[in-house]
Amino acid sequence: MSPRTLDDATVTGIVTDATTAPSMHNAQPWRFRYHRGSRTFALRADLERALPHGDPATRGLHLGCGAALLNLRVAAGQAGHRTATTLLPVPADPALLATVRLDARHAMPDEALTDLYPAIHERHTSRYPFADRQIPESVRTDLSEAARREGAQFAWVTPPHLQTVLALISDAEGYDHMDPDRAAEERSWIRDTSAEAPVDGIPDYALGPRKRAGMAPARDFAGLRPVPGRPFSDFERHPQLALLSTAGDAPTDWLRAGQALERVLLLATLHGVTASFATQALEWPELRWILRDPVSGTGHVQMVVRLGYGPSGPRTPRRPVGQVLTIGP
C-alpha cells in the first residue's frame, strides 16, 4: 500500500475530529503536532489545563487524551490511512502521551473502528433525564466488546451492587461540598454564555436540569449558583450504569481506558443510546476502590458511565484547532 498524500487541510480535519472527545470539565488538555517527514501525529498533555484538586494524579487528564486519541485513529482511518499507535513512546518525556504513525508497514486496518466515524460529531454528553427503558442485551454486549477491543472491561452494574455505587457517588458529592478548593476549581470551568463565547469548559446551556427526583446520578456543576430559567426534572428511577475498568492503573492503562471509553461512546451513539458520566467517587481514592463489584469486578475502575434513551446533550465548545495543532517538517 503506497502512502496517500496528506495535506495540511486533511491534517487539520483529523485533529478537529479528534478534539470532539470528552474531557474532565471540558478542559481539553491536549496538544497535537504533525510531523510531515515521518507522517506521524504526536499527542501531548497540556498540563496547564490539568485539575490539581479534582484530578491530582492526572488520571482523568489521561482518559480525556485517550478519548481524543481514539477519535484521531477513527478520523485517520476514515481518511484512508492505517495507523500504528505507540503509548508513552519516550519514558523520559511523560507528557508525550502517544504517537500515531500513518501507513506504517505493520499497521493493521480496523474497519470496525472506521465505521464509528459518523458518530464523532453526534456524540454529546447528556445531563438530561433518560427514559426508564432497558437497553437490549445485544447492545450491552456490543458495547462491552468495543471496550475489550481497546484492552478494557465494560461491565454493567448489577442490582445488588447498584445501591453501593449510587451511595458512593452521593458520599463523594458530600466530600466535594466540604472541599472549598475543589468547589472553586469546578466553578472556574463553568461558562456564562451571556457574558462570553466560550471555547472550553461547561457552558450554562449544557448544565441540564436540576434533579427533582429519581435515582440516577446527575452531577450539578452549577452547585448553589442560580442559572436563570433552569428547570427541575425527574430522572430515572432505575438508572443503567456501567463500570469501565483496566487490569492495571498506570498512565498507559489510563490512556487505554480513554480509548475504550470513546469507542464505547461512539458505538452507543450509533445505537441511539446517550451517555453521561458519574465521576464523583472516582475523584476520591478512598471511595474509588470500593466501586468495583466485589463478586464479579476485576481490575481498577476508570469510569462510571450512565447510559439510556433520552435527549442528546447540546454541543459544547471546542478550542480553535489552531490553538491545539502545530504542523512541522
List keywords for this structure.
329 residues, five-stranded mixed sheet, four-stranded antiparallel sheet, 9 helices, globular
How would you describe what is shown here?
This protein has a 5-stranded mixed β-sheet with strand order 3-4-2-1-13. Strands 5-10-12-11 form a 4-stranded antiparallel β-sheet. It has helices at residues 8-18, 59-78, 111-114, 137-148, 159-177, 180-187, 251-270, 285-288, 321-324, and strands at 30-35, 40-45, 83-87, 96-102, 153-156, 190-191, 202-203, 210-213, 232-234, 240-246, 274-277, 300-308, 325-328. α2 packs across α7 and α4 packs antiparallel against α7 (251-270). By secondary structure, the protein is α/β, with parallel strands linked by helices. β3 (83-87) and β4 (96-102) form a beta hairpin.
